[in-house]
Amino acid sequence: SLVLVTGASGYISSHTVEAFLDQGYNVRGTVRSEDKGKYLENLFKNKSKGKFEYVIVEDIGKEGAFDEAVKGVDGVAHMASPFHFNAEEPEELFTPAIQGTVGVLESLKKNNPNVQRVVVTSSVASIMDSNIKPPHTFTEKDWNTVSPKECEEQGKNATGQAKYRASKTLAERAFWKFFDDNKPSFDGVAINPPLVLGPIIHQCDKPESLNTSVAAYYSWLKGEKTEKDLPAGGMNYVDVRDTALGHVLALTKQEASGERFITGNGPVSGNDYVLEITRDFPDLKNIPKGNDDSEYKNKLRSESIVHDGSKVTKVLGLRYRPVEETLKEMGQSLRERFNF
Ligand code: NDP
To answer: Which of 5, 12, 138 to mutate to test the pocket of ligand 1 (most atoms within 8 A of CB)?
Structure first.
């Protein structure tokens, strides 16, 4: 069968394309330029199982953008959405996030009577409530009501994070509303990852172009942080390959229908980063000294917020790889890519 992956050139989506190909699915990816399409074609040309093809969709925020791309596909992973904290106007993010999501669904309804399911890449940004102080555990039942309100009240003066989080929340709300309003013949699933970490395989020729989540770790690896920045807790993470597989399971397992799934492997901190960097890459300079005391590390974790990622294991059978593997292989891939 043929799966459409939107925004296939991105960090998580390129791994997701690979995961689908490895399971024997054929994949059509949407990209914004010929150059990005060719890069992926080349990356996946030796895959023995599924075949990769690409189509250009320049502006996902435009009505009818996906009308052609959706033709003949059996399922869709809608992953394209801007992820950065530098938007001036909230609409810079809202339009591609919301219209992109609704647009895929509308194009399917119009042009593809046989599609079975759409998986949307949402985020824990749609779940978390930044007014709730840790320790606290969030689950799939929770919705972020704070960020959309902040953007409504403050417009361009809202924080960059609020604008991004609101864009993800409103896009996922619009996703579910489409199903309620239209009762289409296909169904939907949402994947809600926290910070996504792990090796890069997508096109990225300079560190300045790294996607937001990997860029945050890269500055630790490059010794751009100091002891003052530690412990830098409060985040949860998932390995990019685990979240990619989560998308495959969500698209293919019947039980996923209509559900949201947090794909998260618990808290991670800057302290974890520097300990792992020191262990794996003793030659790297200016890495702040972490605290390896297990009591301290347990305390950091117990004081963190948690995005409970156990449902996807229970319902879809997704297993998480250990954090050491994620951090080590992310470091290795970045050192290889940028030659240091
Ligand atoms: P990337 O920036 O690497 O990928 C984003 C993708 O969306 C790229 O393919 C990009 O295209 C495309 N895109 C962005 N804006 C537009 C637009 N206006 N029109 C067309 N295409 C657009 O980031 P990630 O891989 O991290 O993000 C992928 C998805 O995962 C997003 O939906 C993000 O919100 C979500 N997510 C990410 C997390 C993380 O920690 N990384 C955590 C939780 C959710 P191009 O390559 O041409 O720029």
So the answer is: 12
